[in-house]
Please model this.
Amino acid sequence: MRLKHKFIIAGLTIALLGLSQVPTQASAKTWHYTEASSNSFSKKKFNKAFIYGYHEYTNLYKTVSSAKKQEPDTIKIITTSKSFTAKKTSSNKVYEVIYSGNHYFMNTSDTRLYRYNTWRSGHKLISTVKPTQKNKVVLKAHTHFRKSQHWLYKHINNNISSYTWYRLSKKGNWYVDHSK
Model:
């Protein structure tokens, strides 16, 4: 009889724990963002790459040597809104880039590349994408999103940065915080 009681108690405990995990209406919406595994690029594998800051574009070259010398065989320009991947080459400051399905090279003297587009600054997050664009957000490695933080969406226009301040409501919806 004791063994039967233990099984009943164990079953009830598991059932109660399962019921306590049911999300409430307020916590039903969760905000989980992708985090970069590292802040630096690899020489072996391509990673998603971002350009931001005052550098809104970069020149792409056909070969490593022309990228290294910054010779005028420039092919295309990548803007901050474009998606691409990159990896380091054996040459310092030259990266191999896959853009629109083609392989190119770029010199990071022209601009800087990052593996993330959202980073922490004090008690707030700064990003080149809106917090509602969940599939486009990549957090800097070892950065975690906290629901109490402000999210600053960084607009870049003609070398002048401006920000839209977002805040997460208790119901899990983003809104523009006009008090900032």
Summary: The first helix runs from residue 2 to 20. The mean pLDDT is 80. The two ends are 66 Å apart (CA to CA).
